[in-house]
Amino acid sequence: MNRDIFLEITENFRIASKTMKMVLHGDTRLITAPGQFVNLKLEGKYLRRPISVGDYDSSESGSLTLFYDIVGEGTAKMSKMRPGEKIQILMGLGNGFDTHMDCKKPALIGGGIGCAPMLALAKHLNVEGKKPVAFLGFNTRKDVVLFEELTKLGVETIISTVDGTEGVKGFVTDAYNSYCTQHPDEIDYFYACGPMPMLKALSDTMKIDGELSLDERMACGFGICMCCSVRTKDGARRICKDGPIFRKEDLIWK
User: What are the residue ranges spanned by the domains of the chain?
Assistant: First the structure.
């Protein structure tokens, strides 16, 4: 069951041009799968803020790592919080990526802050004996995150930037297609999280099965406002409540 828990901030610092890393400690047992999200209650704010979980150690005295972009008043307030402060978190939200799929070399495809859940996902896939390849896309080299963390896990990690200042010039889909041209038929599944145009492009063009996290549209975090509605083969679904992760073959794009 989802419930509110107070976690203590142990780290909160900038890691890229607009991206922050927040590490919290406390009871994290309700986080059970990579790709889930949490809902933060900030003092003085009426609406909670849904944030994807970047990494976690699920235990009674575990850790929770969040990566977030400073894009508005709420995240700006988060960025000013200091170690020792506690934050109220509703956790155990959403479904997670299925790490038990029958695959050997899956692709982890992340765009911008959508790269966040790829860290925990890579760790779980390693435990499953799989050998993922990560493709991370950003606007410029100043926006790049998680490259060092993933390479330390032994994950081959390919960066793309729109302006060409780091890695492959272009979108993350360009980096993925270039890799597949050089290594045909190696990638046998994919996991993706990022901006909706990127996810739609992947859904339209990928010839293999995969899962897409639509966390960009988690909206209120509860699925109540219906702003996160998405069409599937089983009818309309709410990203906050029924996702954020959906199988590629189940989504219907307008």
Answer: 3-93, 106-250
- Topology agreement, domain 3-93 and domain 106-250: no
Q: For the chain, how long is the longest CA-to-CA vector?
A: 53
Are the C-beta atoms of residues 194 and 114 closer than 8 Å to each other?
yes
* CATH 2.40.30.10, domain 3-93, yes or no: yes
Task: Tell me if residue 52 falls in helix, strand or coil.
Answer: strand
* pLDDT on residue 3: 85
- Its pTM stands at 0.96
Sequence letter at residue 31: I
For 43-61, the pLDDT digits (tens) are 887 678 899 999 999 999 9
Rg, Å, the chain Cα set: 17
The yes/no answer on whether domain 106-250 falls in CATH 3.40.50.10540 is no
Terminal CA-to-CA distance of the chain, rounded, Å? 34
Q: Which two tokens stand for residue 128?
A: 């499953």
Q: Which regions of the chain does DSSP assign to beta strands (E)?
A: 3-14, 19-26, 37-41, 49-57, 62-69, 86-93, 106-111, 133-138, 156-161, 168-169, 189-193, 210-213, 229-232, 235-238, 245-247
What is the distance between the alpha carbons of residues 9 and 211, in angstroms, rounded to a whole number?
31
Tell me the mean pLDDT in the region 59-82: 95
